[in-house]
């Protein structure tokens, strides 16, 4: 393969209606950087995604490439893009994320410093319809908001601070290959919102390759479809977040740090169960989301603690 400066990988699953918006904005960015490429990975879609991709290839041409990954799971899709990428750098986007002008330049710039292993930028929520009244700022992060402010800085994964998500993340390709790519034990699988695959990869890179930084100018608009703004979505999301957080901890934390983390979740267990019915109480819904996340974390931790050693070694493709 002839190397290029950067490959942008967009993994998509059953989003034929919104995919062109993401792809065209990304291509506009890539064309500002000679030799850059955009790879769209169709991850087991069952809608019109193949036809949409074929039309995009016809109308847009290079530097767009299309790939297919039949195994459902965002980590599978991203690893397929990684295997085909020609770039010295690799950037990851989600199909509901639309980069703003200057996004790619802002991601690339920090890599002149050899101590930098990864860079991510803000994800700003954009709504395609008016939100329900209960959708208060307390729910924005779970909906996909990521904004650490206006100052570039190193990021650590700890209470109240997270590594940049893979909806807006750039890494050195050789480092990602050396670390084995994304762990497919983690990551979204279709409508199952299992997460932490990006944090897991960043944690491995942070230990072995260099620092992870937040760059405020690498801005992506994260579009939220109306069907996502339901109480059930947030209940499911928090449950899967707790499960993923437990697996992430077992793979990346020492036992004393895991034990300390139990205190973070224990405070949520005392909330009374809440079944969302109209009119929805946002405070009680949030408390129920946190309660389910804490229960999922604790039960997943207990179930998988005996296989912690195997989990720490497990990176499948």
What does this structure look like?
With 317 residues, the protein is α/β, with parallel strands linked by helices. The protein folds into 2 domains: 4-226, Spore Coat Polysaccharide Biosynthesis Protein SpsA, Chain A (Alpha-Beta Complex); 232-313, no CATH class. The protein contains 11 helices and 11 strands. It has helices spanning 19-30, 49-60, 74-84, 103-108, 140-143, 173-178, 197-208, 231-252, 255-266, 282-304, 308-313, and strands at residues 4-12, 37-43, 64-69, 87-94, 97-99, 116-120, 123-127, 153-154, 168-172, 211-214, 220-224. The strands form 2 sheets. Strands 3-2-1-4-9-6-10-8 form an 8-stranded mixed sheet, sandwiched between helices. Strands 5-11-7 form a 3-stranded mixed sheet. Helix 1 links the parallel strand 1 (4-12) and strand 2. The two termini are 21 Å apart. The model has no long low-confidence stretch (mean pLDDT 92).
């Amino acid at each position: 393969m002839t190397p290029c400066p950067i490959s942008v990988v967009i993994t998509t699953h059953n989003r034929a209606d919104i995919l062109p918006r993401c792809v065209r904005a990304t291509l506009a960015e890539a064309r500002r950087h000679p030799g850059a490429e955009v790879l769209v990975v169709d991850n087991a879609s069952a809608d019109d995604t193949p036809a949409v991709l074929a039309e995009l290839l016809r109308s847009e041409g290079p530097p767009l490439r299309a790939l297919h990954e039949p195994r459902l799971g965002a980590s599978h899709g991203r690893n397929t893009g990684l295997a085909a990428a020609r770039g010295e750098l690799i950037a990851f986007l989600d199909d509901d994320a639309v980069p703003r002008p200057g996004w790619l330049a802002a991601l690339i710039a920090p890599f002149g410093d050899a101590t930098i292993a990864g860079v991510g930028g803000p994800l700003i929520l954009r709504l395609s319809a008016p939100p329900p009244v209960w959708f208060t700022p307390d729910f924005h992060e779970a909906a996909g908001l990521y904004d650490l402010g206006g100052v570039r800085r190193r990021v650590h994964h700890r209470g109240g601070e997270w590594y940049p998500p893979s909806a807006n993340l750039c890494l050195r390709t050789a480092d990602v290959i050396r670390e084995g790519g994304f762990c497919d034990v983690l990551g979204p699988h279709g409508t199952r919102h299992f997460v932490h695959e990006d944090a897991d990869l960043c944690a491995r890179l942070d230990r072995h390759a260099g620092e992870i930084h937040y760059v405020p100018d690498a801005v992506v608009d994260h579009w939220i479809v109306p069907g996502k703004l339901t109480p059930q979505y947030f209940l499911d999301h928090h449950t899967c977040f707790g499960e993923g957080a437990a697996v992430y901890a077992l793979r990346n934390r020492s036992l004393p740090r895991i034990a300390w983390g139990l205190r973070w979740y224990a405070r949520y267990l005392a909330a009374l169960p809440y079944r969302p019915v109209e009119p929805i109480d946002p405070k009680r819904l949030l408390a129920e989301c946190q309660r389910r996340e804490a229960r999922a974390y604790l039960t997943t931790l207990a179930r998988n603690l005996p296989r912690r050693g195997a989990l720490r070694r497990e990176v499948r493709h």
